[in-house]
Amino acid sequence: MLSHVEVTARVTVTPAAHFVWSNRLDYTHDCLVCLRVGRVMQLQHGKPYGLCAGNEHPAPIRVSGFDTTDHGAERGLRCRISFWWAPFNDLTEPAVQASELSAEPWVQLNYRVGCHTCRDTGAGDWLGIEGFLRSGSGPVTTSCPRCATELVTAAGAPKINLV
Ligand SMILES: [Zn+2]
Ligand SMILES: [Zn+2]
Fold first, then answer.
1. How far is the CA of 122 from the centre of ligand 1 (A)?
2. What is the per-residue pLDDT across 12-63, written as a single tens digit (0 to 9) for each?
3. What is the pLDDT of residue 110?
4. How far, in Å, from the CA of 120 to the mean position of ligand 2?
5. How many whole angstroms separate alpha carbon 76 and alpha carbon 152?
6. 65-79, 123-137, 139-153: lowest mean pLDDT where?
7. Average pLDDT, whole number, for the chain?
8. Which of 58, 11, 9, 12 has its CA nearest to residue 33?
9. Interval 59-79: pLDDT, tens
10. How many structural domains compose the chain?
11. Which run of H or E residues covers position 120?
12. Phi and psi dihedrals of 87, rounded to 5?
C-alpha cells in the first residue's frame, strides 16, 4: 500500500544569516526491497526513488512534497515522504516485524547557511556553511566558523508523523 509520513522542522535565523534548506535528507525506513528494518534511505526532492544505504539499491520511497516557509526570523520545512509498504519480517532477524513507521523513526535534514557579516567584509566563501537537524538532537545554535556571528538556532529535533 502507498503510505506517507510528514517531517516538519523549524529554525530561527539571525539577520546575519542567509539560510537555505537542502533538498537532500536521510530517513530511517523498513525496506521492502532488501527486507531489512531500520535502513537509512538517502532521499532527494525531485528524485523518483530513494537509495537504501548499505548497497545503495533503489527503493520505492521518495520525497513527494517539499514546502519551505519564511515567517520573520523563522524558517520552516514541511516534507512529505511517500513510499510503497507491505508487512514483512526482517531477513536476518525473523522475529522482527516491519512497520509503516520504523520502530525508531529517525531523520536528518540538511541546510546551508551564509554569513552576511563575512560577505560584507569580502570573504569569498561566506555562503558555504553546512549544518543539519536530526532526530534525537536538542536545542543547538550554529555560529559562523570564521567570525563567530550567531546564525541559526534550532529549538529541537524534526518531527515525524504518519499522515
Ligand atoms: Zn533496502
Ligand atoms: Zn562570518
1. 46
2. 999 999 999 999 999 999 999 999 999 999 999 999 999 999 789 999 999 9
3. 97
4. 9
5. 12
6. 123-137
7. 95
8. 58
9. 999 999 999 999 999 999 999
10. 1
11. helix 116-120
12. -65, 140
Q: How far is the CA of 146 from the centre of ligand 2 (A)?
A: 5
What is the spatial distance between Cα 58 and Cα 50, in angstroms, rounded to a whole number? 6
CA 21 to chain centre: 9
Residue 114 CA to ligand 2 center (angstroms) comes to: 8
What does the block give as the cell for 64?
A: 513527494
Residues 6+ apart with CB under 8 A from 161: 5, 6, 8
Under 8 Å between Cβ of 25 and 109: yes
Span from the CA of 77 to the centroid of ligand 2 (angstroms): 24
The residue behind cell 546575519 is 16
